[in-house]
Amino acid sequence: MGKKLRFGVLGCANIAVKAVIPALKKSEMCEVVAIASRGIEKAERTAAELGIERAYGSYEELLSDPEVDAVYIPLPNHLHKEWTIKSAQAGKHVLCEKPLALNQEEAAEMVQACREAGVKLAEAFMYRHHPRYARVKEIMDSGEIGTIRAVHGSFTFNNAGDTDNVRYRADWGGGSIYDVGCYPISAARFLLGQEPEAATVQAFFSPEHDHVDMMASGLIEFPNQVGLTFTCGMWAEFQNSLQVLGSEGRIDISSAFIAGSAEEASFTVTVKGEKRTEESPAVNQYSIQGDLFARSILEDTPLRFESEDAIFNMKVIDACLTSAKEKQRIVLRQSR
């Protein structure tokens, strides 16, 4: 067995316990050797449940563990900056949950801190590591569906009854744009290979949920008169889809961001009325994400998506939130 990247996990969030840690344990190049919580009891209980060797009652203790090479940060959004920077200063590489930060400025500080410390920083957008997205981009670039006219993405779910959820704390970076709107925004930027020029968003801010945006609908303007229209929400029927519309055809991904089975991973391509299904393998997106991150560190190669990408994604999210709050179109200055 070759060398593996040894992960420590800061926090016992659901996404870590139910998805990421099990995926890292199944991956080829990663292992989870430590977990920390704000209290030792929870850390020890979670470590025992998941078969993790060491448990710590504070994040600082984990960061001082010399046998931890990298940390995974699934903490609430407002803690991403603090613990990414502290992890970098402790010499740990960082895989941080999306959205990377609360705004573009925070993201830039995090990227700079990791660069100065000589560690790698990756934003945990697992969906884009699924091999089907490389195939989608290949089809788009081939010209098969003609000139790209528009992209539409939806990521919604209904969790409004859980009013104690961290997603409903405004000061913690709650809200649907941060939580799920970031996905179609990221996907459109990746697939189009361009940065947006403007954003206009209508949102529903809920008094019952600390006035965070529980639903948002937006138009993101890209160069060449191409638009991303998106919906995201935490108080709506579940949806998880992406469509790329071209002059001669379209690509429909019905399970765009969450895909476990081969059936969920497949997508359709329609060209001049003729539809075909593109089969994709049943893979664990989180495992692939971990392996690609580990390979970049262990083999000293570039990240699949450089950390600067997160700064640009946060720039668009900032514009979306400003547009929704001020009810106006926000122009984005090009800087890439």
UniProtKB/TrEMBL annotation:
Domain of life: Bacteria
Keywords attached to this entry: Oxidoreductase
Residue ranges that the Swiss-Prot or TrEMBL entry lists as coiled coil: none
Domain annotation GFO/IDH/MocA-like oxidoreductase: ranges: 133-251
InterPro entries tied to this protein: Gfo/Idh/MocA-like_OxRdtase_N (IPR000683), Gfo/Idh/MocA_domain (IPR050984), GFO_IDH_MocA-like_dom (IPR055170), NAD(P)-bd_dom_sf (IPR036291)
Pfam hit, one: GFO_IDH_MocA
Gfo/Idh/MocA-like oxidoreductase N-terminal domain span: 5-123
The keyword NADP belongs to this UniProt entry's keyword annotation: no
Molecular function in Gene Ontology: nucleotide binding; oxidoreductase activity
Family designation: Belongs to the Gfo/Idh/MocA family.
Name of the molecule in the record: Putative dehydrogenase
